[in-house]
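Sequence in, structure out.
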Amino acid sequence: QVQVVESGGGLVQPGGSLRLSCAASRSNLGIYVMTWYRQTPGKERELVAAITSTGVTNYANSVKGRFTISRDDVKSTVYLQMNSLKPEDTAVYYCNSGLKVGEPIGPWGQGTQVTVSS
């Protein structure tokens, strides 16, 4: 299992940027797919971005070109750089680990709130 702690959220204006961090427990993080998810009230959790153990990335269409996922396995940290933020990006953002994209198996953290508003 990979325990995670998300951070970096906050209140930003439309068009602004945030970098989210997912600090993971010090296991062999390199064997895991790491994924950012987000959830808004009344909606099911959705996949935002994923990065495999070999560095292959996947993005939701709604964030392509604006968000970038990366990983630093030495620091046991996964990042989500979010640029050109839109109000519809407002959500609680979570990260999780897995052996396959879209199939989280790790425990869920508390997430970090991102609010995009004027």
